[in-house]
Amino acid sequence: MIKVLKTGFYSTIQDQGRLGYLNYGVPCSGAMDAYSSQFANALLGNPKDAAVIEMTMTGADLLFLEATTIAVTGANMRPKLNGKPIVMFKSIIVNVNDMLTFGKLTNGFRTYLAVKGGVLTEMVLGSRSMLKGITDNFRIQKGDYLEMSNASNVIIPKNAKLKFDNLYLNEDTLDVMKGPEFDQLAKYQKNMLFSSTFQVSKYNNRMAYQLEPLVHNDLESVLTSPVLPGTVQLTPSGQLIVLMRDCQTTGGYPRVLQLTEKSVNMLSQKTTGNNLTLRRREF
Amino acid sequence: MSFQLRYSQYNERSILIEWPADINENILQDVLVFKEVIENKYPKQSVEVISSYSSILIVYVITIDNVNDRILDLKKLYSIQRDVKKTNSKTFRIPVCYDEEFAMDLDDFSKVKNLSKDAVVRLHSETIYTVYFIGFLPGFLYLGGLNSSLHLDRKTIPNLKVKKGAVGIGGQQTGIYPQDSPGGWHIIGNSPIELFNPKQHPPCFIKAGDQVKFHPISKSEYQNIKSEVNNQNFDFKTLELHD
């Protein structure tokens, strides 16, 4: 088990999300940066949907009550084991009573901690991803004991090497495809989308990221229609809203763009004030 | 009835199918039948389908390799679906307490609409509504059929906390908030029924295509049902209406 001594700014348990309940209005959820969480699992030989801890902006203080192997990926929060810096993107052996802490965020915004076999918190509707209204807790609390899979004696294969593509943590161009209502935009509005530099507004969380500045438009609202993480909505007031993992399943704003799956991961590593440009991509 | 559908790729692993953009039961029936045909054709683990008023989004677990092949498959499925009968639908009677304790906006609402409170309750509870789809929040039903004399634009300033079970009217729609949530609808009552329970299978006992009718209840009936729901011994099958 892991004892949570400090939670960090916003830490949750995430796997690859809920499948099969979109039609009940249940969000997908899952790790915001799916690539980093899958990579952490791969380093430990875990299945890619094993549950990991997602830490946002600041890390947690975690006391390991049993020995295991861990891997830290995603944003660099200067992880330390018993006060000594540890490398990221590698499997690390942890002993009983070892303490994992994090320091200052130096790049990216979300860090992933995988443990051998995965974290075994409550499974609801086929997923351990925490979400208000679905799981009992919607984020990790101080004093929580997080159960782990008892797989510490499994040998980690050492003969294969994995390379983490960490370039995307610093990249600021999002690849987008046109959304269902894109063609209703005037030409100059389309051009503006691809020639402007946008900033992540302070309204950014697991549900959605809003971008600035406004894109003035006269699009008509649409009949409430399906949306997915990565869908970019444009509101009548000109707000661009990029839906993220905990988004609703349907929405009534015009869907002008759709981020590629890789770009959803990239955007997850951005925070308030970060600059972004959009690049048109065909399927 | 057969419609001219538009097929387009939505992202790397999803395809959007659009019907003419309109809210009507012919389109809804066609949407739901096609959805069912798709769900029966592919294993549950490989595809899921989100439906709404006049479109469905088919989300594949694996990245789409050749979208034209996929669309061709879907078009074939649509052309042979004529044999499929109307999806089986149920009608539920949802108890709602319109008492002022819950109906914080009923007073204002009835004044603006120039109706008595009783008339609002009667008009709201005599209609049989069709469930078009579930969205917005887990278990939030999009209902069609609100009497036009009850249409009223949403509040300009939304409530930060609308209570779970709240029954509201917003624009041409009416619905029940399945959990505490911010919301801009006019609240005219509350239902003690739990519309969504993540620990139940399925988590929502009502599905798209079903019908619901609101049934006015007193405060004491409300409390009785509420305690049964809280003690988990409320049987929602008793809400089902049979012709």
Set down the secondary structure blueprint.
The complex is a heterodimer of chains A (283) and B (243).
Chain A: E1 2-6, E2 10-14, H1 34-43, E3 52-56, E4 61-64, E5 68-76, E6 79-81, E7 84-85, E8 91-94, E9 99-102, E10 107-115, E11 145-146, E12 173-178, H2 187-195, E13 198-204, E14 208-212, E15 225-226, E16 231-234, E17 240-243, E18 250-251, E19 255-259, H3 261-268, E20 275-280
Chain B: E1 6-11, E2 14-18, H1 25-41, E3 47-51, E4 55-60, H2 67-80, E5 91-97, H3 106-113, H4 117-125, E6 128-134, E7 141-144, E8 159-162, E9 166-170, E10 173-176, E11 181-183, E12 186-190, E13 211-217, H5 219-230, E14 240-241
Parallel strand pairs in B: 5-13
Antiparallel strand pairs in B: 1-2, 2-4, 3-4, 5-14, 6-7, 6-13, 8-11, 9-10, 9-12
Main traits of this protein?
heterodimer; A: 283 residues; mainly beta; Cyclophilin; 2 domains; seven-stranded mixed β-barrel; six-stranded antiparallel beta sheet; 3 helices; 33% strand; elongated; B: 243 residues; alpha+beta; Gyrase A, domain 2; five-stranded mixed beta sheet; four-stranded antiparallel beta sheet; 5 helices; 14 strands
Would you mind describing this structure in some detail?
Chain A is 10% helix and 33% strand. Chain A contains three helices and 20 strands. The termini of chain A are far apart. Chain A folds into two domains: 2-167, no CATH class; 171-280, Cyclophilin, CATH 2.40.100. In chain A, 50% of the residues are buried. Chain B is built from five helices and 14 strands. Chain B starts with 5 loop residues before the first strand and ends with a strand. Chains A and B meet through strand 15 of A and strand 1, strand 2, strand 3 and strand 4 of B.
